[in-house]
Amino acid sequence: MPSRDLSKLRILVTGASGGIGRELVKQLAKSGARVCFTARRADRIHALASNLESAGIPTHQIAYAVGDIIDSDVRRRLTSTCQDQFGGLDVLINNAGVGAVGPFADADPERLRRLFEVNVFAPIELVRCTLPLLRKGKTPAIVNVGSVLAHFAVPNKSEYCATKFALRGFTDSLRAEMKREGIDVISVHPNTTSSEFFDRLVEKKGKVAENPIQMPADVAARNILAAVSRGRAETVLSITGKLSVFTARLAPSIMRSIVRRFG
Ligand SMILES: NC(=O)c1ccc[n+]([C@@H]2O[C@H](COP(=O)([O-])OP(=O)(O)OC[C@H]3O[C@@H](n4cnc5c(N)ncnc54)[C@H](OP(=O)(O)O)[C@@H]3O)[C@@H](O)[C@H]2O)c1
């Protein structure tokens, strides 16, 4: 696939108030790309915009909208912001996501519903909403941020694993459909990353197993952008992530015993 010069493109990033999303926005804006970004925390989004401006990024290079990505009005507003301020859209990065920790049997249905709303329905519907712009875009791409837990599942994160498996399935199917339209559909899969993710869980019941190996969010963002530039269909971001996914694919029974033993 041809390589993509992100610095010349118009890019929409969700989940930009912290973690990986904020780093994606900073790196893209610094490279010269025009970036539209969003999340719910208005103070964070405004602070990001003013930090970019203080760093010398011209105001015409950035746009933003604040809101809950599960709200169809917010998704429509984002799409029209890209059209009105940038004249269109080339790359959509669906990064916003939430997790929950605890046994399935102790959870109410709302936990499952909330995770599917944010991690599955919202990104998929944002694809639907932005597709007319992407069809007219330059080297267009749809990028869905998954997880290593889209490849193998662990206990006490059943709803989260289910959402990331679902998003990966959607992404694989859409990739084949979009091929003839010349739109790349890309999956990127972080392993544990230093961010606020585990402080902002929808619900936490019991202990959260700490992974001592964490990728800094700026490194995760850099790796994601490298994968998008190269147009790679699917990328697992870290070495430990690659090892786990490889084991899960080639030796699923070994992976099942590791998961049973260590969670
Ligand atoms: N951190 C990890 O270990 C890890 C591992 C694998 C995959 N991932 C994936 O990587 C992505 C980024 O996560 P992160 O680590 O950067 O986590 P994070 O620091 O918690 O950032 C999540 C972002 O999503 C936004 N968000 C959450 N719910 C939203 C909603 N309803 N509407 C709009 N925005 C919403 C948050 O903003 P507001 O709260 O301001 O709305 C925030 O900007 C997620 O898809 C996550 O599943 C993370």
Q: Treating each run of at least 4 consecutive H or I residues as one helix, how many helices? A: 8
What level of helicity do the residues show? 40-55%
CATH topology: Rossmann fold
Determine the mean pLDDT: 96
The outline comes out as globular
Sheet with most strands: strand arrangement:
3-2-1-4-5-6-9
CATH superfamily: NAD(P)-binding Rossmann-like Domain
Question: How much β-strand is present in the residues?
Answer: 5-15%
- Quickly give the structural class: alpha/beta
Whole-number tally of structural domains: 1
Sheet with the most strands, sense and barrel status = 7 strands, parallel
**CATH arch. level architecture:** 3-Layer(aba) Sandwich
What's the CATH class label?
Alpha Beta
Gap between N and C termini, in Å?
A: 37 Å
C-alpha-based Rg, rounded: 18 Å
- Give the uncertain stretches in residue-range form: none
Enumerate the distinct ligands: NADP nicotinamide-adenine-dinucleotide phosphate
- Number of beta-strand segments: 9
H/E element order: EHEHEHEHEHEEEHEHH
Question: What is the compact description of this entry?
Answer:
The chain is α/β, with parallel strands linked by helices and about 260 residues long. The chain has helices spanning about 20-30, 40-55, 70-85, 110-135, 160-180, 215-230, 240-250, 250-260; strands spanning about 10-15, 35-40, 60-65, 90-95, 140-145, 185-190, 195, 215, 235. The chain has a single domain (about 5-240), classed as NAD(P)-binding Rossmann-like Domain (Rossmann fold), CATH 3.40.50.720.
